[in-house]
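Translate sequence into structure tokens.
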Amino acid sequence: MSAPSLSVVLVTQSQAPLLPRWLANVDPAADEIVAVDGGSQDQTPELLRANPKVRYARREVDTVGRQKSYAISLARCDWVLVLDSDELLSDPLRAALPRLLGSRRNQWYKLPRYWLLSLEPPRYVHADLLYPDYQLRLFRNTPFWRYEDRPSHARFPRRGRGPGRKLRRGHLLHLDFAVHDRARREQKFARYERLQPGYSANRAYLWEDLPHEIRPCPELPPADSR
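Result follows.
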């Protein structure tokens, strides 16, 4: 019996500076990469199309949930892993994927996520709103897994998910703080506040305003994507 296959799904737009590291990080884990571009104005299409595993599509963005659901609908493999262009797989997570996909029982996994402040040295921001920040991103490729139609912070329906579990080790690495300055994050916060006023997750982008600690990050990306 062949090993279960994995589609890594990406929704992106004008993120060319992040893509070389992202592709180096994801490519070894993926059987295919489904990339849906919302209308890039940089080298994003060329970078994605140059990778033989990428199946590239364009679709104008209406909502994030619909865009991601469309991308998931294009996936052909047994399992789907949804990532953003500013997220990487840690070395322990990438190494664990074959075992996770081989489960006969689990239908999904929630992955813990570090919000990295820097890669060199590897540091993350520890705050109640930011950690462990579980993300349901890895699931079997069935029609159930389509995002609810929300203006931002898309999520899956709660009923009907079936059995799954949270991982304690094997993190996503979120680079938002490492690649975006305060002014850029304030713009993102303001945009999310317009879409979902008062939603607690919006405040995560302004980490300086939260009670927090800056700690060494115990998990790193694999050496090929540092």
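Note: The two ends are 34 Å apart (CA to CA).
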